[in-house]
Amino acid sequence: MGKTADLTTVQKMTIDTLKKEGKTQKVIAKEVGCSQSSVSKHINREAKGRKRCGRKECTSKRDKRALERIVKQNRFKNVGEIHKEWTVAGVSASRSTTHRRMQDMGFSCRIPRVKPLLNKRQRQKRLAWAQDKKDWTAAEWSKVMFSDESKFCISFGNQGPRVWRKTGEAQNPRCLKSSVKFPQSVMVWGAMSSAAVGPLCFLRSRVNAAVYQEVLEHLMLPAADQLYGGDDFIFQHDLAPAHSAKSTSTWFKDHGIPLLDWPANSPDLNPIENLWGIVKRKMRDARPNNAEELKATIKATWALITPEECNRLVDSMPRRIAAAIQAKGAATKY
């Protein structure tokens, strides 16, 4: 006896006729010459207007629209808070039902992406900077030494509140967490070029101009020799107070090192920010017990960064510039 797909047109028509006559599936199968399961599947497939099995939903379309409005009003609320508001709106549903309805709508609980908070003037300056650099080639960007400070914590578990968003909404402004410049009590300074990474410096005190110039003298200059040899290069750093201090500018002039002009609050344009992210992701499973173990883990992970990773990040600069122009100076996905 064949499967449902093997039934001939004549057999299917015969099944339909016998079904209308009120014959049982067992009798129909015997008369048609096929299995009872084939008859059952054919009848179910052809049936129209069948009532849905299972318990009827306790929420209406109107209730679902109300729930979606509540979620979109503040995407950083947890399920309990959303459920409470939905209940106040007159909907009788459990917390688990609330969660299921949100999932049915396509909402997922995700860690929000972080983007710098930019005012109108900063966006205008970023756009002007990007337009000025739009014709730079990858070869020109390879002459730039990118630098930055980053904070590493012993605990990687606390990543802040999560956000409810649907697929494709990662860049939705309502789903983003604005970042502000972190305090200067940063822990690690590093530098990179398109060829490799330079040495790390662990900062023990607040970074003022004097401390920063010591880092430049004892780490940046050796890193430049390591990465560029005797070739010329351009140094990049952001506009942190220690970086933009007059004494720091004088230090660079005295050493004959040109600086890359840089727009304020623009970590998304700096490839070393992505490098810090790579290091932190590689350290995700590490559980250092104290600061010394954390430093050792950072050093070991930093040493694993390959030249290919550095080259790929620096090669992304033309795309970053294009993205900044397209966004009219607003923060980009990088």
UniProtKB/TrEMBL annotation:
InterPro entries: Homeodomain-like_sf (IPR009057), RNaseH_sf (IPR036397), Tc1-like_DDE_dom (IPR038717), Transpos_IS630-like (IPR047655), Transposase_5 (IPR052338), Transposase_Tc1-like (IPR002492), WH-like_DNA-bd_sf (IPR036388)
BP terms from Gene Ontology: DNA integration; DNA transposition
Residue ranges of domain Transposase Tc1-like in the record: 64-132
Molecular function GO labels: DNA binding
Superkingdom, natural source: Eukaryota
Domain (Tc1-like transposase DDE) ranges: 144-295
Membrane-traversing stretches: none
Alphabetized NCBIfam families for the sequence: transpos_IS630
PANTHER family reported for this sequence: TC1-LIKE TRANSPOSASE DDE DOMAIN-CONTAINING PROTEIN, TRANSPOSABLE ELEMENT-RELATED
Protein name as annotated: Transposase
Organism field: Gadus morhua
Lineage: Eukaryota, Metazoa, Chordata, Craniata, Vertebrata
